[in-house]
Amino acid sequence: MISFALLGLAVPAGLSMFTYYWARNYLLDQRLSSALHQTQTNANLARTLLGGSSPDPAQLLDSLASPSTSEPVLYYERHWYGSSAAAGPDTMPAPLIKVVASEHQAARQLYDRNRNKELAIGIPLPGGSAYFQVFSLADLTSTLATLRDALVGGSLLAFAVSLALGSWATRRVLKPVRDIGQAAASIAAGRLDARLDAEGDAELAELATGFNTMVSSLQDRLERDARFASDVSHELRSPLTTLNSAVQIMQNRRHELSSRSARALDLLTAEVERFQRLVEDLLEISRYDAGVAQLDLEPVDVAALVERLLVESGQPVTVQARSRAGGATVVADRRRLEHAVGNLIRNAVVHAGGVTGACVAYDGDETVITIEDRGPGIDAEDREAVFERFARGRAAGRRSSGGGVGLGLALVREHLCLQGGTVHFEPADPCGSRFVVTIPGGRP
Fold this sequence. Notes:
alpha+beta, five-stranded mixed beta sheet, 9 helices, 12 strands, rod-shaped
């Protein structure tokens, strides 16, 4: 658009400058030619009249044909005579007078007098006399000023038209690109039903068709993957239930086992519990992907909920409540909120040395939950990635078998987004991590 506008300004500006200078030179040459002819004619007549007996300079000047925009001046016998009292040597440049009256050479000169352009022409006469004629160029200057203003106005108008045309053309040309960008953003946000109009622009029809085909294939693949995860998770629940039952029976007869078998039973129990959490997480994720996740809203005392989760996790941390009534109540899905905060606490216990601080604050229209740990923190480049599915950070390869598969924080975000909440990471002072959860609503 800027290129369009600059081109639209440069072309008429160049043409305007050329037109102005051509017109200026042409009109000035015409005026100069006319003035020279007029001055030469009057000088010849003055030469003739001064050659007679007892010439009268004043009468001679009155007899000359002179335009109203010019003043004849006569230098005769070392005296100056003009058509008016103001006419005389003071109205002309001194160099011109010297060349004509002293050196007896014809000359002309453009000069400024009283902020007006004037042209003075001098022709030497016999006997040391000289004839001068001063022409006012005020009318020519006014004409050129009018022409200049018209050309400048035309250039600015052309610039405005070019700017408008460039803006229109740019929007028209870039509209398909914007449509593609908006569709891509919608797809990135999870709205896989976004499509491009393949019939809007014949030149981009092939691109739009290919884009739509790609998105449809992506949507089909994601749906197949979601169905696969859901089906596998459901199929795993039956053997998992059997395993849980068998482990429970073995736990009931733990006193009959040797110490080595008891340790093996503890490992088996831990792995079955981890397996069960993984299956539940996969089922939860599949519900989100299928769009069938539902909310069961009820009033929740957030401070009491966080306090209970800390106690169940064995964390000797007191919840700091920053609200006038000592707690905040929100209308939320208790199970999902409990799952989200519980995952944050569990991560702090398993991977970050435990919880060092917990706070529930009522802040305007939001309730803010803060969980701090004493871990090494998260690298700046991983602070957003940790909320992605199956993202476990750079320490993933060093985790023990007790670690997760990277669904915990992803589920935290999914649970909160479903309720209009958010979660983000902040570095704690002086070290560690701080996860901040916001839930809309709440009253002290």
